[in-house]
Amino acid sequence: MENEPKRKRRAIVLAESPYKGAYGKSERDDTFIQEANNLRQFYQRTNPDVDFQIVPFYGDRETVQSSLQGITPEDEVFVFGHGGPILGGLDNSELAEIFKQSGVRNCSFGSCDFGKYIEPFKSIPNVTYRDKGS
Known about the structure:
Elements lengths: L9 E7 L14 H16 L4 E7 L3 H7 L8 E5 L5 E2 L2 E2 H11 L4 E4 L16 E2 L6
């Protein structure tokens, strides 16, 4: 249809955010949510036409899967969290499989020293990460 509005490109930030006090579920640790908000401000200045979404998650694969529904090759996914074999309470191989099944094509990891943990994500096109350093 020629009058349909063009779909906006999406930028999704999966921000590692465990509940403080474990399963008492009072409030989330917002360290990486704050970093995601910094990125949102950058996007508002440089790419105001992008639909920007911050998704706090920790150990909830359904939250990750639902946030990636309808993702296209033009969309971007960012993952902010502590680098290691488990990211946001999910094993890296499990998280990588969710990305592959969802069709993620552009993914950047905002964590330090992620190089030795990137292996499960290497088959995803356009993956960027910090190999070493903080």
